[in-house]
Specification:
The chain is of the alpha+beta class and about 130 residues long. It has helices spanning about 25-40, 50-60, 95-100, 110-120, and strands at about 5-10, 15-20, 80-85, 105. The chain folds into 2 domains: about 5-40, no CATH class; about 50-120, no CATH class. The chain contains 4 helices and 4 strands, in the order ββααβαβα. Strand 1 and strand 2 form a beta hairpin. The longest helix is centred in the N-terminal third of the chain and has 15 residues, at about 25-40. It is flat, with a radius of gyration of 18 Å.
Length: about 130
């Protein structure tokens, strides 16, 4: 099987080569992650507060919300562990954030897969 060629680190001016599936060299990976985390804000700033924690526990306790609705991967646990926003809200003040019709039960594996794909720009038709 052919091996993908290494390419330069995405950090401006860095000549280090990185392998397939990597964007930054080891010297810049932590730096970029810190920048991303700072821009993203804390979970509390994004609306995942004590109120959300109580709501999500209630939502998952409902009998129709105890099974993962996404089933995106063979590693899906089938048992719902978190509440997923079907259409990602722009923030905690967006009406979609608290709209129960915009919530679905999900396992952590499927929720993570959906989040990564949505970040990369895929469209979700669920």
């Amino acid at each position: 099987m052919p091996v993908r060629p290494r390419r330069p680190c995405a950090y401006p001016g860095c000549p280090e080569l990185v392998g397939a599936g990597e964007r930054y060299c080891s010297a810049h990976r932590k730096q970029e992650q810190k920048y991303y985390d700072k821009q993203r804000g804390t979970a509390n700033e994004r609306g995942y507060t004590y109120r959300w924690n109580k709501y999500s526990k209630w939502f998952l306790s409902q009998s129709e919300n105890q099974v993962c609705k996404l089933r995106l991967d063979k590693r899906c646990k089938l048992i719902a562990e978190c509440v997923d926003h079907i259409v990602p809200p722009s923030g905690p003040n967006d009406s979609l954030f608290w709209d129960e019709k915009n919530h679905q039960a999900s396992c952590l594996v499927c929720n993570s897969i959906k989040g990564r794909k949505a970040i990369r720009g895929s469209e979700w038709e669920i």
